[in-house]
Write a structure and sequence with these properties.
The complex is a heterodimer of chains A (102) and B (322).
Chain A (H helix, E strand, L loop, with lengths): L1 H28 L3 H27 L2 H31 L10
Helix pairs in contact in A: 1-2, 2-3
Chain B lengths: L1 H20 L3 H21 L3 H25 L2 H5 L11 H23 L10 H7 L8 H9 L1 H20 L2 E3 L10 H23 L7 H17 L8 H27 L12 H25 L2 E3 L14
Parallel strand pairs in B: 1-2
The chains are: A mainly alpha (102), B mainly alpha (322).
Chain lengths: 102, 322
């Protein structure tokens, strides 16, 4: 039983890491600042959520799970705010969003 | 885990190299902050959560904010200029110096590796655990910082205060500072998060007696909260009376520390030698005042100069540079 929850937690963490990988790939490959922020913030937030969930499952204690949830919520707020500020500053400076070349 | 440690160590070396060799200052600051974060992870791997907390809060977070505010003060063209003129990094002088440092580092590493067998793994951990009961706290790091080696901590706080004094003596900054707020989002989020920051800061202070935490991480979180408030356009009008209060708050940590030491001396114990039954309370008092002072001092360093109060101050003969 305990090893089953361990495996489940590890699987959640691995899926979370895959989301981080996807976000990093987006940061490296996407053409402009807006699309990069989009990829990074969305994918990493979900990835961190899954890793926190995995760690919570592995810890098996409600207190630790609640602390991990709090960490995830705080990072969500900080990341969303940061991404929005970066995008608005870029927009305010007149950096044009990327459009497909004809 | 060994593979993870190896990658971590390699990344640290690569980041240091990047931080020192990159030619634009903005990139250097980013590399430095990334280095600080990875360094905190490295301290966690070395099972030193206290240092990890301090490194993440001060080494990466606050130093990053200080460096960014410095960059913001430089003329825009200067921050993007290459730091090193091209052409350096070759020639016999360069290779002589680099070779010397490489040789020195190699000798150091070799000595370290050879002396590794003789190094006792816990270091001073054993004697510390034996005397932990008489220190008044349960966290061995706090016991060292505020009891057994409290003079060192006193000096650290004195150095920080001296830095603030030097920063203030360099000149005035406009106060209240005019900030351009890019969107109402930041003030809203900061309003939401400030209570959380305060809670975390004082929880870190309080936890210091029995768990990783203490005055420096707590003060750093306090200062970070202040920096966020300043960035989101919160301004406080400082009256001359408020200014003198601010000076007391800035120096409270050092004052309480020195007063405690001197009064212990007068009571016949010796400078900062705590009697066992008072040690816990004394450490709490010193750490609380030091934490608040450290927060105020770090924030003052971020502001970067003495706040320039309203010009209606006839009794101040100092001419204000523009």
């Amino acid at each position: 039983m305990s090893s089953a929850t361990d495996m489940f937690g590890a699987a959640l963490a691995v899926v979370g890491v895959l989301f981080f990988l996807a976000g990093t790939l987006g940061l490296l490959r996407f053409p402009d600042i807006y699309t990069r922020i989009h990829a990074l913030t969305k994918a990493d937030n979900l990835g961190l959520g899954l890793i926190c969930l995995g760690a919570a499952v592995q810890s098996g204690s409600l207190m630790t799970a609640l602390k991990l949830l709090l960490i995830w919520i705080l990072v969500l707020v900080a990341a969303a705010t940061g991404a929005s500020l970066i995008a608005q500053t870029a927009h305010g400076r007149g950096i044009p969003p990327w459009t497909r070349q004809e | 885990m060994a593979v993870f440690d190896l990658i971590l160590g390699l990344l640290l070396v690569i980041l240091v190299r990047k931080c020192l060799s990159i030619t634009d200052m903005f990139g250097a600051v980013i590399s430095f902050m990334a280095f600080g974060l990875l360094m905190a992870v490295a301290w966690v791997r070395l099972e030193a959560p206290d240092i990890a907390l301090a490194e993440a809060a001060i080494g990466s977070g606050l130093t990053g904010a200080l460096l960014f505010s410095t960059l913001g003060r430089l003329p825009h063209s200067e921050t993007r200029q290459p730091l090193v003129p091209r052409g350096s990094g070759s020639g016999p002088g360069y290779w002589l110096v680099t070779g010397f440092w490489w040789a020195a580092a190699m000798v150091l590493i070799a000595t370290f590796v050879f002396s590794f067998q003789e190094l006792q793994t816990p270091g001073l951990g054993g004697p510390l655990q034996e005397r932990l009961a008489e220190s008044g706290v349960l966290n061995p790091v706090t016991a060292v910082l505020l009891n057994f080696r409290s003079l060192d901590t006193l000096m650290e706080i004195a150095v920080l205060l001296a830095a603030v004094v030097v920063a203030w003596s360099m000149g005035y900054v406009d106060w209240p500072a005019r900030q351009t707020i890019p969107s109402p989002l930041l003030p809203g989020v900061v309003r939401l998060l400030t209570p959380v920051f305060l809670l975390v800061a004082f929880s870190l202070l309080w936890r210091g007696s029995h768990a990783p935490g203490g005055a420096f991480p707590g003060g750093a979180v306090l200062a970070a909260s202040g920096i966020l408030l300043l960035l989101s356009g919160m301004t406080v009008q400082i009256s001359p009376r408020g200014m003198s209060w601010l000076r007391w708050v800035l120096s409270a940590g050092l004052l309480v520390f020195v007063l405690a030491g001197v009064s212990l001396m007068a009571a016949g114990f010796g400078f900062l030698v705590y009697p066992e039954q008072w040690a816990g309370n004394l450490i709490l008092l010193i750490e609380a005042s030091a934490g608040v002072s450290i927060g105020a001092m770090l924030l003052a360093l971020y502001v970067g100069g003495e706040p320039d109060m309203a010009p209606s101050q006839p009794n101040n003969p100092v001419s204000r540079p523009q």
